[in-house]
Amino acid sequence: MSAPDSPRKNDDVAAPYGPPAPSRYRTVHLQRAKDEGRRFAMLTVYDAMTAALFDEAGVEVLLVGDSVGNTVLGHSSTLPVTLDQMILFTQAVVRGAERALVVADLPFGSYEASPRQAVESAVRLVKESGAHAVKVEGDERFAEHVAAMTAAGVAVMAHIGFTPQSEHVLGGYRVQGRGEGAVEAMTASARALEAAGAFAVLMEMVPSDVAAAVDAALRVPTVGIGAGPGTTGQVLVWQDMLGLREGRTPRFVRQYARLHEVIGEGVRAYRRDVLDGAFPAPEHGFEA
């Protein structure tokens, strides 16, 4: 049996873009990327089949985001998502991912009340789903929560800048970290969360120069979404990145495929064949 973090047969997946991939990405590998000036990729995912696909493609971190509320459950925001739902979707992702580090969001209402509530929710999420870490939204006011979760044995990724769970307080989807003193304020938040034990800090919808300054000020890696190229890692919602959804996409999204068109064409062709009697053909049936 190989050592827990020894290379496996598919190690060539990561070889052109860095050192051979470990058998399982862990927080230490993300830290090593930061220390060595390398980057890593992160994508949201909510089911086993997609997780397996992204895992095979070499994505280092899979985020079971509470964005499942928008992308899968059809809500207009992340706020209705429950801890039970996050556990269910994370279980599916863990089953599909062999190598990636799986991070799961703590949903709105599951951690804000107190550090004790945060620990109870985080422990339950990790224990019942198999996630390797949790992500929590909030600035330095949640440093005590992060410290308590870390002390309880839960790896925590912090999330600052635009925090979707606070959209009503923030006045909607708006860029954060602008104006005089923005770099100092966001750096202070990030440092407080780092000092509390966060293994990484995610920044969402933050000016590029601010995010780069925060990354430079931290020992731990940063992850950006709408935060420019200066972070250690990048994350996108996969349905945005692969063009599954039509309509307006956020400015910070690059679409690497147009799945909405591909799937639509395939479904229309299937329906035509069914209506015309072309499917199923004789080769799709069984003999007595």
Number of helices: 11
Please write the CATH class name of the largest domain: Alpha Beta
Helix/strand/pairing class, anyone? alpha/beta
Low-confidence stretches: 1-12
Beginning-to-end CA distance, first to last residue: 47 Å
Strand order of the largest sheet: 1-2-3-4-5-6-7-8
CATH topology of the largest domain: TIM Barrel
- Helix fraction, binned, reads 25-40%
- Tell me the Rg in angstroms: 20 Å
Q: CATH superfamily of the largest domain, called what?
A: Phosphoenolpyruvate-binding domains
DSSP strand content: 5-15%
- What letter string, H or E per element, gives the SSE order? HEHEHHEHEHEHHEHEEHH
Mean pLDDT: 92
How many domains would you count in the coordinates? 2
Shape designation: globular
Instruction: Tell me the total number of β-strands.
Output: 8
Largest sheet: 8 strands, parallel, barrel
Question: From the 3D coordinates, which CATH architecture of the largest domain would you assign?
Answer: Alpha-Beta Barrel
Concise structural overview:
Helix content is 38%, strand content 13%.
